Amino acid sequence: MTSITTHSRQRAHLRGVHVDFDGRSALGGVDLDVHAGSTTVIAGPNGAGKSTLLEVLAGTRDPTSGTRSVDGAIAFVPQRTAISDRLPVTVRDVVTVGTWGRTGRWHPLGADGRAAVAEAMARLGITALATHPLASLSGGQRQRALLAQGIARGADLLLLDEPTTGLDSDSAERIRSIMRSEAERGVAVVCVSHDPVVIREADHVVRLADGVRIGE
């Protein structure tokens, strides 16, 4: 578990966040603070609002009401099933997308970007897969490629949606290890997860039920 001081930098701040879908409340007045160097897990049953809360943090969904503020660059790592098998891209292509936040989408990849891609692939153990099509990978390999993309972003706030779900034990442990090391490097890590190991090791656990925060 990461040690947090009261002086750690706040990376995300939510107050009274409500999200409604077609008149139905998905989130009802959620408060949340996320600090640098910490790991926060969002837990709860299916339909509790976990992914919606992560989307609000990522800035991909606006609250119906309430306030959201984020300090720093964001990397969002979706579930591997969110990425189409039909994309004609290699593992290196996928990881390189993570550098666009540093260089811009249409700028050539410079030495720093190439180094970031190489380091991210090495940390996730997928260097040997760099030229393989994404569609050819196993579930665990694909999730590692997506996490490598997030690492290559060099973000201050790393958001992950159920990164270990359905993975083999080796892939799941590698991803947990990266989450630990990112927090140790000062990144604020927020993860939706049912993984008991991830939940046990977290600094904070935000528990949701029916879109409402019910405890930690």
UniProtKB/TrEMBL annotation:
The protein's UniProt keywords, in alphabetical order, are: ATP-binding, Nucleotide-binding, Transport
Question: Coiled coil: which residue ranges?
Answer: none
Keyword Cell inner membrane annotated: no
Q: Which PROSITE patterns match?
A: ABC_TRANSPORTER_1, ABC_TRANSPORTER_2
List GO molecular-function terms, semicolon-separated: ATP binding; ATP hydrolysis activity
Q: Which segments constitute the ABC transporter domain?
A: 12-214
Q: Does the keyword Transferase apply?
A: no
**Cited NCBIfam families:** AztA
Q: Which family does it belong to?
A: Belongs to the ABC transporter superfamily.
Instruction: Give the protein's recorded name.
Output: Metal ABC transporter ATP-binding protein
The protein's organism comes out as Labedella gwakjiensis
What lineage is this protein's organism placed in? Answer: Bacteria, Bacillati, Actinomycetota, Actinomycetes, Micrococcales
